[in-house]
Amino acid sequence: MNAVSSNPSDRVNWQTVLMFALGFWLSGSLLLDLVVVPSLFATGMMSQPGFASAGYSIFGLFNRVELLCAALVLTGVLVLFRRHELPQRHQKGSIALSAVLIIVAIIYTYIMTPQISSLGLQLNLFEVPESLSTAMMELHGGYWLLETLKLIAGATLLRWCYRNSCSLV
Fold first, then answer.
1. How many domains does the chain have?
2. Would you list the DSSP string of 92-106?
3. Which residues cross the membrane (predicted)?
């Protein structure tokens, strides 16, 4: 009877899960933004005709990982909120930041990546590809704005969780 009434979330250290998901996600984003994309640009791969489909595959896969991490972060924050393990001053802010993170991941996955990839497709083989269009530049600007927002929100949430875990010990 005791096994039926036991809460399985009591066995999971959500503080650790939350910090691991945030650390993995933010480090993966920084690796992609600061290493992979600049190296693809420097080698000239972004100007190749098949890059739009390859880029969609790379970013589409990473966007799914981002959605998983964002869901873990939101779940962790809600569990910590429910258990009253978040400091009073960070409760509403933590929920808001985790909601911002999942919204950014959804925007990347279902709006930005398909739009950028569709603008990058070369449908006419006989037409000389032009440089980046105005719409593509606007989408890239929006991407970097959302990326900055994601990194600031994620780093703030990670810092709060780390401080909270140090104070619990």
1. 1
2. HHHHHHHHHHHHHHH
3. 12-41, 61-81, 93-111, 142-162
Distances (CA, A) of 112 to 15, 60, 97: 31, 10, 20
Q: What whole-number distance in Å separates Cα of residue 22 and Cα of residue 2? A: 34
Q: Which domain holds residue 116?
A: 12-32+47-122+136-168
- Residue closest to 117 by CA, chosen among 43, 38, 60, 42: 60
Integer-rounded Cα radius of gyration of the chain: 20
144-157 confidence digits (pLDDT tens): 999 999 999 999 99
Average pLDDT taken over every residue of the chain: 85
DSSP SS3 for 9? helix
From CA 127, how far away is CA 33, in angstroms rounded?
A: 30
| DSSP for 70-96, written as a single string | HHHHHHHHHHHHHTT-S-GGGHHHHHH
Please check whether residue 41 lies inside any domain of the structure. Answer: no
